[in-house]
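Example 262.
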Amino acid sequence: MSRIRVTVWGENVHERKSAVVRGVYPQGMHQCIADALNAAGGIEAGTATLDQPDHGLPPGRLEETDVLIWWGHAAHGEVRDEIVERVTQAVWSGMGAIFLHSAHFSKPFKRLMGTPCNLTWREAGERERLWLTSRSHPIAAGLPDHFELEHEEMYGEPFGIPDPMETVFVSWFQGGEVFRSGVTYKRGAGKVFYFRPGHETYPTYHDANIQRVIANAVRWAHNPAPRLADPSAAPNIPVETALEPITERGPKLHAAGEEGYR
Ligand code: ZN
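Predicted structure in complex with zinc ion:
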């Protein structure tokens, strides 16, 4: 069986600007995540970053990406709309997508969700306890019913997302807040997973449970079917090609063979 091809996209800003972040992730968060995936088995992970031409996602790259992982925070606004559209189209066509931590405010996530995706937050190094809410879900495979991260940023409800297809994890924070920290969606032919942990000043992506969740999520989000060529196609079916014989009747707005409105 061929390996699942993953591209880990990182904005790679704080890794360069902050000595603290560089200390935790000397090769960047994207590389840390890719390394863990490459060690997980059955996955071949590469990276792409904001500063590269086309943000590392030139035409063709997403066609060769089964699952895209996105981490962004300080530079959401610098991501070009053309690339956001490219990512959106790829998801609609069948590419899997995993959005991590502050990617809740990334352009592609907001575009795919269609809601503000806002939340409450606090950076105080609190303990986060993640609870499985769906023990049999493939993204939770091999995980204990609950596990902890000693230091994390708090994200709290209300979380301005559409109602998820499934909620796989909820988080509790030391300060008392709770949060839907692992949620799934289908968007077009693509599967989408949002996973909350991963504040850049903490070693979250070195944590074995977190690495397992991300690897599980890659396998879950992978869609082996061929990509849809045009996920937005809305073809007109002429009377002559209807499956059952029909006779046209009543008034008509559209001319035969017309493109239709968009
Ligand atoms: Zn953060």
